[in-house]
Write a structure and sequence with these properties.
heterodimer, A: 514 residues, CHAD domain, nine-stranded antiparallel beta sheet, 17 helices, 9 strands, globular, B: 253 residues, alpha/beta, 13 helices
C-alpha cells in the first residue's frame, strides 16, 4: 500500500482557508480532534528509518510501525520496566524479533520528540464509505526551550483498495498550491529541527571527479574520514553501543591507508607525523574492541559448548566484563586527553589549509584519476602475488599479511569509487569482499584462540570454578580450531575466484593507463 | 492466519450478521482480520459499504495472486479489510471446476495472504456445492448458525452426514443457535434436545433482535454502531468463545 503524503502549510492561519477550499470540492466529513505526544527512537545511524520503520514511545507504549505496509506492533512499556536500549531488553515476542533483525547490536536512542494536535477528517464516496483520511496537524518539534519549533502539516492517508481516490485527493491538494513534502513525520520533524534523517553513514561517501587535483581529492577523502571519527567520539565516551568504536576504528584505519597515498603529493614529514598519531590512536583502542567482540559473542560461545561445560563460561565472562570496563575507561580518557585533542586539531588545521600551499609537492596538482589507477593497480598486483604464494605450509602470519593487503586495496577502491562506473566497481568489491570475509574470519578464529589460552593461564586450577572455566575455554578453543580449519579449506576457492581471469580483465579495464 | 467459516446449507440464518460482527470484534482486539465475502448477494460487502471493482469477477478470484491483492479493500475500521464479492460469484462453482485440484483452490488462494492477517473470516453462500467443499478444506474451523427449528436441525444433520461420508473432520464443525426467539417453546425444546446430543454446540445464543436487523439500514456492524447494546454484548460473548476455540488470547492495542 502507498504511504501517506504530507503537505506543508505556511502557517497556522493557512489552515482555515485550505480546509474551506477542500470542503468546497470534496465530500469531507467528521472533525475528530486528537492530541499526541511521540518520542521517536532509532539507532545512531537510523537503521529503522532506513528500513521504512518508525519506533515511537507514546502514552507509555512502545510502537513499531512499518510504513511500507502500514502494520504496527506495540507493547506496554510501564509493565516492562522502562525504556529499552537494546533489543534484548524487550520481552520475547514479534516486536523484539523485528527490532533485532533491523538494529542488531546497535542501541536505541531518542532522536526527536513531537507533540501534535490534529483534526481528522474522512473522505467519503457516494456510499458513505471512507476512502481516505485527511489530518491537519500542528506539530511541535523538539523538547523544551528555545529550540522548539512548530510546523503545520496536512497529511493525506490512503486506504487499501482506494488508490484512485487517494490520487485524486493528493492532486486536489496540490492544485490548491500546497507543496508535497518528501518523507514521513520522522524525517519531516527532523528536517524542521535542522537535521537530516538517515544522513549518517560509516561508508566513505565522497564524490570526486577525475580531473580534481590529487592533493585536493585526498583532503576531501581524509576530511570525510575525520568527520566520521568525530561523530563517533561521544558515543564511545558515553558507551552507547559498540558500533561507535567500530566505525571510529574503521575511519582511523582508512585514514592510515589514505596517508600512504600522500607520497609525491604532500611532504614526507606530514605523512610520517600523522601516520604515527593515527597508529597510536588505533592501537590504544585495540584492547577495547577485542573485548567488545567477546561480549557480543557470549550467546554464540554458549551455543558452541555442550551444556555440561557452559557454567564455566560465567567466571570467564566476569573477567572479560571487568577488563572491558577498564579498557573503556582508559580509551574514554584517551579521547578526552590533551594529546588526542592536539593531534586532531593539528590534523584539522592541515586538512583545512588552503591549496596551493608551500607544503604541496608537484604530484598535488596531477589529476586524481592517475593516482587512483596507479595505486589500485599496485595494490592489486601485490595482493595477487602474496595470495599465490600461500600454500599448505603458509603460516598464520602469511595469511595475516595478505589480509592487511586486501584491506588496503579495499579502502583504495572505496576512496575512489566515485571515479569509476558504479556497477563494475561494485562487482570488484563484491569479489574482494568474499575473499576478505574468509581471511577476516580466519584471523578472528586465531585471535580468539590466543586470547582464550591467555585466560586459561589466569585461572586457578586448584578451585572447582577455575577448573570449570579451564574446561570451558578448552572446549571453545577446540571448536574454534575446527572452524578455523574449515575456513582455511575454503580459502583457495575464494582466492581463485578473485585472482581469476574475469577479475583480471575487469581490473585491467578499470585501472590501466592514467 | 486462522481461517474461520460462517457456513450454513440453509439461507437466512444470520450467517452474514455473525461474520460481520465477529470480524469487527476480532479487528477491534487488534487482530489483523480479513473478511472474505463469498456470497454473490454480497451482503457483508454491503454492510461495509464496499463495492468490488467493475472488472473483478469470479474467474479472477479463483486465479488468486494479484487479483486478490488488488481487490482487498480497507473497511472504515482499523485492522479490518474485506474482499468483496461480485454477482458473478453465482458461477463460482463453474470457475472452480475449471481449475486443477478444484476442491483445494480456495485453500491455495488464501495461503498467499496468510502472513498478512491473523484471522480470515469466510462469509459463505448457502447450499452444498464445490464452493462449500473448498470452504471445508480451506477452513480451520467451521461455524454453523442454527435456528432452533425442525427444518434447520434436519439440514444440520445432513451436513454432519455429508462430513462423515466425505471423511471431513467433524471435530472442526461447531454450531451455535441463531435468531432465537426465547418466547417460542418450540425453540426452547429444540435447543435442549440438541444440546443434549453431544455435538459441538457453542454456549452463546444469538437472539432474534431488531437492532441486528437494522444493520442493513446503518450499514455498520452492530458491535460498532451500538457497542453497548445487548446484541453487541452477545456477539462479544460469541467471539470470546470462538477466539478461545482457536487457541488465541485477548489481544489489545
Amino acid at each position: 500500500m502507498q504511504n501517506s503524503q504530507y503537505f506543508v502549510l505556511e502557517d497556522r492561519s493557512a489552515r482555515g482557508d485550505v480546509l474551506e477550499r477542500m470542503k468546497n470540492g470534496l465530500p469531507l466529513t467528521g472533525d475528530r480532534k486528537a492530541e499526541k505526544k511521540q518520542l521517536f527512537l532509532d539507532t545512531y545511524d537510523h537503521r529503522l528509518f532506513k528500513k521504512g520503520c518508525l519506533l515511537t514511545k507514546e502514552d507509555g507504549r512502545l510502537i513499531l510501525r512499518d510504513t511500507g505496509d502500514g502494520t504496527s506492533l506495540s507493547l506496554d512499556l510501564d509493565a516492562e520496566g522502562g525504556m529499552p536500549r537494546f533489543w534484548r531488553d524487550l520481552p520475547e515476542g514479534p516486536l523484539r524479533d523485528n527490532l533485532r533483525s533491523v538494529i542488531d547490536v546497535r542501541a536505541l536512542m531518542p532522536v526527536v520528540g513531537v507533540e501534535s494536535r490534529a483534526a481528522h477528517l474522512n473522505l467519503e464516496n457516494e456510499d458513505g464509505k471512507t476512502v481516505a483520511h485527511v489530518n491537519f496537524e500542528d506539530v511541535e518539534v523538539g523538547g523544551d526551550g528555545a529550540d522548539k519549533k512548530v510546523i503545520h502539516l496536512l497529511e493525506a492517508l490512503p486506504m487499501r483498495g482506494y488508490a484512485e481516490e487517494f490520487q485524486k485527493l493528493t492532486r486536489y491538494i496540490s492544485d490548491l498550491g500546497l507543496a508535497p513534502a518528501e518523507g514521513n513525520i520522522f524525517s519531516i520533524a527532523l528536517g524542521a529541527a535542522g537535521k537530516k534523517a538517515g544522513a549518517y553513514t560509516s561508508k566513505v561517501s565522497v564524490v570526486l571527479d577525475t580531473g580534481m587535483p590529487s592533493g585536493k581529492a585526498l583532503k576531501v577523502v581524509l576530511s570525510s574520514l575525520l568527520e566520521t571519527m568525530r561523530k563517533n567520539e561521544d558515543g564511545i565516551v558515553n558507551d552507547i553501543d559498540t558500533e561507535f568504536l567500530h566505525d571510529f576504528r574503521v575511519a582511523v584505519r582508512r585514514t592510515r591507508s589514505a596517508l600512504a597515498l600522500m607520497r609525491d603529493v604532500f611532504p614526507e614529514g606530514v605523512k610520517e607525523r600523522f601516520k604515527a598519531e593515527f597508529s597510536g590512536i588505533g592501537r590504544k583502542s585495540n584492547e577495547l574492541r577485542d573485548l567488545d567482540i567477546y561480549l557480543l559473542r557470549r550467546e554464540e560461545y554458549t551455543e558452541m559448548l555442550p551444556p555440561a561445560l557452559r557454567a564455566g563460561l560465567d567466571p570467564l565472562f566476569d573477567i572479560i566484563e571487568r577488563e572491558r570496563e577498564e579498557a573503556h575507561r582508559e580509551f574514554a580518557l584517551e579521547l578526552a586527553s590533551d594529546s588526542y585533542r592536539r593531534s586532531i586539531e593539528a590534523w584539522e588545521e592541515f586538512l583545512h589549509r588552503e591549496e596551493p600551499s608551500g607544503d604541496a609537492l608537484p604530484g598535488a596538482d596531477a589529476p586524481v584519476i592517475g593516482l587512483a589507477k596507479l595505486r589500485i593497480r599496485k595494490r592489486y598486483r601485490k595482493a595477487i602475488k602474496l595470495g599465490k604464494s600461500i600454500d599448505g605450509s603458509s603460516s598464520d602470519r602469511d595469511l595475516h599479511t595478505l589480509r592487511i593487503e586486501c584491506k588496503k586495496l579495499r579502502y583504495y577502491l572505496e576512496f575512489f569509487e566515485s571515479l569509476f562506473p558504479a556497477d563494475e566497481i561494485k562487482e570488484v568489491i563484491k569479489h574482494l569482499k568474499a575473499l576478505q570475509d574468509n581471511l577476516g574470519d580466519y584471523n578472528d578464529m586465531h585471535v580468539q584462540q590466543e586470547r582464550l589460552k591467555g585466560y586459561i593461564s589466569k585461572m586457578d586450577a586448584s578451585e572447582d570454578e577455575g577448573r570449570e572455566s579451564i574446561a570451558a575455554a578448552g572446549g571453545l578453543i577446540s571448536e574454534l580450531y575446527m572452524k578455523q580449519k574449515q575456513i582455511r579449506s575454503e580459502f583457495h576457492g575464494r582466492f581463485e575466484e578473485f585472482a581469476g581471469e574475469e577479475m583480471k580483465e575487469l581490473f585491467d579495464d578499470l585501472f590501466s593507463g592514467n | 492466519m486462522i481461517t474461520l467459516a460462517l457456513y450454513s446449507m440453509k439461507g437466512g440464518v444470520g450467517k452474514t450478521a455473525a461474520a460481520v460482527n465477529l470480524a469487527h470484534l476480532a479487528s477491534a482486539e487488534t487482530y489483523r482480520t480479513l473478511i472474505c465475502d463469498l456470497d454473490p448477494q454480497g451482503a457483508s460487502s454491503y454492510y461495509f459499504r464496499i463495492k468490488a471493482a467493475r472488472n473483478f469477477n469470479s474467474s479472477k478470484f479463483v486465479k488468486g495472486g494479484r487479483f486478490i491483492d488488488e481487490n482487498i479493500k480497507g473497511t472504515d475500521y482499523p485492522n479490518l479489510d474485506l474482499l468483496p464479492s461480485k454477482l458473478s460469484y453465482r458461477n463460482l462453482d463453474l470457475a472452480l471446476d475449471d481449475m486443477k485440484n478444484s476442491k483445494f483452490r480456495l485453500q491455495r488462494i488464501f495461503r498467499e495472504i496468510e502472513h498478512e492477517y491473523d484471522y480470515l473470516i469466510l462469509d459463505c453462500p448457502p447450499g452444498i456445492s464445490l464452493v462449500s467443499e473448498n470452504v471445508f478444506n480451506a477452513s480451520d474451523y467451521i461455524f454453523v448458525p442454527l435456528i432452533p427449528t425442525t427444518l434447520s436441525v434436519m439440514t444440520y444433520e445432513k451436513l454432519l452426514e455429508f462430513f462423515t461420508k466425505k471423511e471431513y473432520d467433524a471435530g472442526r464443525l461447531y454450531a451455535f443457535f441463531s435468531m432465537v426467539e426465547s418466547k417460542k417453546s418450540l425453540h426452547k425444546e429444540m435447543m435442549e434436545k440438541i444440546e443434549s446430543g453431544g455435538q459441538n454446540i457453542l454456549r452463546t445464543r444469538i437472539p432474534y433482535r431488531s437492532d441486528i436487523e437494522r444493520m442493513g439500514v446503518y450499514r455498520e456492524p452492530v458491535t460498532a454502531f451500538l457497542p453497548q447494546s445487548d446484541s453487541a454484548r452477545i456477539y462479544a460473548g460469541l467471539w470470546e468463545e470462538i477466539r478461545g476455540i482457536t487457541g488465541m488470547g485477548r489481544a489489545e492495542g
